[in-house]
Structures are given as structure tokens and as C-alpha cells.
Amino acid sequence: MKKYLVKRLLQIVPVIFIITFVVFVLVYMAGDPVALMLPEDSSESDREALRAALGLNDSFVVQYFRFLADLSQGNFGTSFKYSQEALPLVLERLPATFELATASMIVATLMSIPLGIYSARKRNSLVDLFITSGSVLGKAMPNFWLGILLILLFAVNMELFPVSGRDGLSNLILPALTLGTGVAAEMTRLVRSSMLEILNQDYIRTARSKGLSNSMVVYKHAFRNSLNPVITIMGVQISHLVAGALVTESVFSWPGLGLLLVQAVNGRDMAVVQAAVLVIAVLVILINLIIDLIYRLLDPRIHYS
Description:
It is a single chain. By secondary structure, the chain is mainly alpha-helical. It has two domains: 2-87, no CATH class; 94-298, MetI-like fold (Orthogonal Bundle). Helices cover 77% and strands 1% of the residues. The chain has helices at 2-29, 34-37, 44-54, 60-72, 86-121, 126-140, 143-157, 169-199, 202-209, 214-225, 227-243, 246-251, 257-266, 270-298, and strands at residues 78-79, 84-85. It has a two-stranded antiparallel ribbon. Strand 1 and strand 2 (84-85) form a beta hairpin. Helix 5 (86-121) packs antiparallel against helix 11.
């Protein structure tokens, strides 16, 4: 296990290096940030002076290696919009994103596991058809569209929840439902298919032949052994929730990393864009590593080399 963990940690280094290169290239091609940093009536000499001060007149290679040198010291640059260092600004928004992602995963888990198990137990029934159709519909609905519908229904018409902000639990419910619905749809289908595969195994038929109750067979034997693919999709979806909450945070003005990244892209605040993308990339890599280690705890038969 230790050898595997060290190997995976060493693999992170080239991945991060590639990500830094891709992010820098995209930022380099995004346009001239000086056009947004100075007023429209500024002279060309002022713009050239600012470009020289920022090192934007240097070649691509020089700028990239300067970026790597600063990155090695934890320096992502300064946000010209917020007039503060980019990395602390990004890390300041992480708790809000983690809060939304955690709440969304709780919603998705509470919805998907009971529905997936019940759908597998009632295979090919009308209930099964209704659940599987609903999961397809939930996966097909865009987050922004669902979020707007929830705002119109529960915030505007019924006035049950606030529209935006992060002032308490009531502000969290609608964005968590919006973000968690698509994840629940994906997980429901996987739980159903995994349960159907396990329920057809010989040891399940043996357990039933011993007179065990259906609930005991389903929840103690079948569900526990179907957890590995469920954990896999949960890990993937947690990464998706952390990295892909941009639209939902924008719709509900949730002050997380996603909203900050959208605003930075729109304002060409490249220091913040670089810091946010790299932080998200590192989080996704670490989450995937943690999920791999959880496999070993759930199933001792799994060995890593």
C-alpha cells in the first residue's frame, strides 16, 4: 500500500506540469489583459508601459518559465480586480464550494440509493420504468434550467427559500437540489445495474434458500457487495461537483470558487483563472487518490502494486 501511495503521489507531478502548461497557453491566447486594466481613453504609451511592467512583451517561453518560477514559490500573481494575491483569494472561496458540493452529494445519495435499490427489486415493473425514466430525465436537464425552475417555483411563487447568497441553510437548499439532481440520476442507474448484477449471483440464491428474509439478502449481502462501483461513481461525481459547480453558483450567486472563476474569465483576471484552475485540478487528483484508497478498506481482496 505504501509503495502504491508513493507511486501515485509521484505521478501527480507530471500531471500538474501538463495542466500548468495547458492553462498558461489558454491564458496566453485569451487576449490582452491590459485592455481591461486601463480605461478606454488611455494612451498607447501608457498601455505599452504597463505591458512592459507586467512582462507581457516577452516571448512565450520567457513568460512561461517565469510563471513556473513564480508558481514554485506559491505566487500566482495579483488579481487586478480585487487588488490582492490570487491564491489566497481562491482558497478563501473553497469552503463555500465544499459546502455546496457536500450538500449536493448528500442530496444525491439520499435520492439515488433507495431509488436504485427499489428499482432493482421491482425489475421490469411500472415503478422500475418510472424510476429509470426519471433518472434519464434528471440527467438530461441542464443545471441552469433546473435552477431557474426551482427559483421560479420555490423562491418567486411560493416564497419559501431565498434566491441567492450564503446566509444559512435556507440558502443552501435550492442550489444543492439543483446540483444534486443530475448526480442522483447518474448514481440511481448505476446502483440499479450493480444491484441487478449482484442479485443474480449464486451466493444470493444460496442466502435465500437458507430462509433469510428478502430485506436481509438485499441490504446485508447484495448492497454491500455492490458498493465498489457506487463508490467509483461517487468519487467521479464529487470531483464533478467541486469542479463543475460554475453554472449553479452563478445562477444562485453562491460565493464559491465556481462563481469566482466565471467572473475572472469574464473580466480576463488571468491570475485568478490560473490559480482557480490549478487548485481545482489538484483537488480532483487528490479526491481520485482517496477513492482508490477507500476501495481497499471496503474490499480487502483488492491489492495495489
